[in-house]
Amino acid sequence: MEKVIITNSLGESLTFSHKPPLLLKSIDGTGSTEVSVQMQKSPYQDGQSYVDSLLEPRVIPITAEIKSKDVYKLRSTISKVLNPKLGVGTLTYFRGTDVKEIPFVVEQPPSFPSGTDNKGRTFQLVLFTLICPNPYWLDIDQITEPLIAWIGEFKFPLSLPTTMGRKGDSVTMINKGDVPTPVFITFNGPSDSPVVINHTTGEFIKINRQLGDGEKIEINTQFGNKKVEIVRQNGERINAFNWIDLDSTFFQLQVGANELEYTALSGTINANVQVSWKNRYIGL
Q: What is the DSSP letter of 202?
C-alpha cells in the first residue's frame, strides 16, 4: 500500500494515503527519470564517442482527493504546506515495508479542479507537481561507521601501495545503492594531521593541522554542497577549507565494498573518525 508524507522547510507535513481525509489517488515519476546522454564527435569520425549519461531532475506529479466535511479548511492547509516560496522540502515515500525519501521543490502548486466529478460538499480533487533537483531516492536512515585512529608515519602525495607505519585493520564500508554516494566525515581530536584513505579508489582526505581535545572537523563531499568546517567546543563553526591538503579528493563511496582507513602522525585512543552516508537509488 502506497503512502507519501510531504514535509516543507518549516517542518509542516501532509500525509496522503488510502485513508481519509487525504486520499492518494496516483503518484508518478518514482521509477525512471529523463537521461541526457553526453556524446562528442571528432573530425572524420563515424558516429560519436560516448562520454557520460546524466540524470535530469525527477518530476513527480501527484493526484489526491480531500475526503472530509472540512474541504475548504483542508484546501487552505494543503496550499499553505505546499507553498512554492518555502524552498526545499522532503518527500517520504512508503510502499509496503520499503521507505525512501527525496528532497523536492514545488513546481506546480496545488490546484483544485471544478466540476461535479472533481468537487462536492465533502470531496475535492487535488493536483500538484513536485520537482526533485537531485533525482536519487535515498534511504531514510543514515549509515554511520567509526574508524579508530592509528599512529603511523607516512608522506604525501600518497602513492599506493605504500607503507603506513603502525596501523590497524581497515574497515570495509558497503554502498548498497545504485550509484556512488557522497560521504560526511567527522574528524574528532586530539589528532595531528589526520587522514582518511579510500584504498578502493586510491583517494584520500587529509587535514594539515592539529586537532585539540574536544575539537572536530566536519567534511561534506556532496557535489554542489562541499563543506569543511571546524566545530569548537562552544559550537562555533569556522570555514576550514584552507586546512585540506591540496592533493586530497572529496571522494565518494563507490557501489559495493570500499576499504577505508584512518591514520595520523600522532593522537590518542580518544581520537576517531566517523564516516556517514545514505545509499542512493535511480528508481523504485
A: T
Q: Where are the beta strands (DSSP E) in 212-277?
A: 216-220, 227-231, 237-239, 252-253, 256-263, 266-267, 272-277
Distance CA 239, CA 128 (A): 39
C-alpha grid cell for residue 271?
Answer: 581520537
Q: Is the distance from CB of 60 to CB of 129 less than 8 angstroms?
A: yes
Across the range 58-71, mean pLDDT stands at 96
Give the three-class secondary structure for 243. helix
User: With contact defined as beta carbons under 8 Å apart, do 257 and 198 qualify?
Assistant: no
CA distances (Å), origin 35, targets 57, 252, 282: 9, 21, 11
Q: Which residues of 131-164 are buried (b: 16+ CB within 10 A; e: fewer)?
A: bbebbbbbbeeebeeebebbbbebeeebeeeeeb
Contact 130, 60 (CB under 8 A): yes
90-128 pLDDT tens trace: 999 999 889 999 999 999 999 999 998 899 999 999 999
pLDDT tier at 163 (50, 70, 90 boundaries)? very low
In the sheet that 143-148 helps form, which strands lie side by side, from edge to edge? Answer: 143-148, 272-277, 184-188, 216-220, 227-231, 237-239
273: confidence class by pLDDT, cuts 50, 70, 90: confident
Report how far residue 87's alpha carbon sits from residue 104's, in angstroms, rounded to the nearest whole number: 8
Cα 165 to Cα 49, 151, 152, 264, distances in angstroms:
45, 8, 4, 10
pLDDT value of position 166: 44
CB count, 10 Å around CB of 281? Answer: 17
User: Looking at the predicted structure, is the pLDDT value of residue 160 above 70?
Assistant: no
